[in-house]
Amino acid sequence: MESKKEISQHALYAVIFLIIIAGLIGYQNYQAYQINSDISILASELSQLRNQVQRNFGQLEEEGKSLKEGLAQLNTSLEKDIEGLSGRLESARQESKEQAADIEKTISTLEVGYQDFSDVIELTVQSVVSVQTNTGTGSGFFINRDGHIVTNYHVIEDASSGVIVTHDGEQYDIQIVGWNENADIAVLKVDAGYNWLNFGSSHQTRVGERVIAIGNPGGLDFSVTQGIVSATNRNDEKGNTYIQIDVPINPGNSGGPLIDASGDVIGVNTLKLAGFEGVGFALSSDHVNTIVNLIIG
């Protein structure tokens, strides 16, 4: 049998072993607690980080949406600005064209002011005719390739016969296409082709502008007189519009063309103020052109 001393030693060993085991278990439990605590802290930090990321992502989405809206508004504004600029550029371009045209006409007029009308006369006189009837003589001019001639109605009024004499001396029987007594305009025709004159724009005619009148005053065929425009937009009680000129308008001149520096017809020489020299009137080309188109159809 074991002695009491041995039993005491064994008991001591057992107690020591149990103490060691208990210490190990306690240490492991402490380690486990620390690990769980660290895990909880990490989980909390991860959750906070996730929430922060979500908030940042939401803010980025809002900022992206605002940026898109801002870009859309900017594009719309730019498109409107571009449209506005395009409109202003087109308007400026058109104004420049009109100003250039006015300048060219002014230059042309000024050039003629220091020169004579020789070249213009040479080109235009061939289109003028003498209208000779049994009641008197007047003038006219070709207006197209079809042989239509414009003159004053009073030149052929009450006439029972007559001829048209061209610049080259040819004679043609008068064919009356139509007339407007109120406007004192008649359209005649010959079956022949001659150079014709173009109607200019009388509303652009300016006071002081140099002009020439071609006609057949007093039986002097194809005479040319020069003068200036004294006034524009003179109206009579019948609604006709005239250009006032200082060019003499004598019997035989009626119906002839009033021509500007460009060689265009700006009026039809019609009448003069009785008892005054240098006060003549020509029906404005814009008015005449409208009447003629209605007559020819």
Which overall shape is indicated by the principal axes computed on the Cα atoms? Answer: rod-shaped
- Gyration radius over CA: 53 Å
Distance between the termini: 158 Å
Low-confidence stretches: none
The name of the CATH architecture of the domain at 118-296 is Beta Barrel
Strand and helix order: HHEEEHEEEEEEEEEEH
**Helix-and-strand structural type:** alpha+beta
Mean pLDDT rating: 87
Residues in β-strands, percent:
25-35%
The CATH class of the domain at 118-296, by name, is: Mainly Beta
Would you kindly provide a written description of the structure presented here, covering whatever features stand out?
By secondary structure, the protein is of the alpha+beta class. The protein has a domain at 118-296: Beta Barrel (Thrombin, subunit H). The chain is built from four helices and 13 strands. It has helices spanning 4-113, 118-124, 153-156, 285-296, and strands spanning 128-133, 136-142, 148-151, 162-165, 171-173, 175-180, 185-189, 210-215, 223-235, 241-245, 257-259, 265-272, 280-284. The strands form two sheets. Strands 5-4-1-2-3-7-6 form a seven-stranded antiparallel sheet. A six-stranded antiparallel β-barrel has the order 8-9-10-13-12-11. The chain is rod-shaped and about 185 Å long. It starts with a helix and ends with a helix.
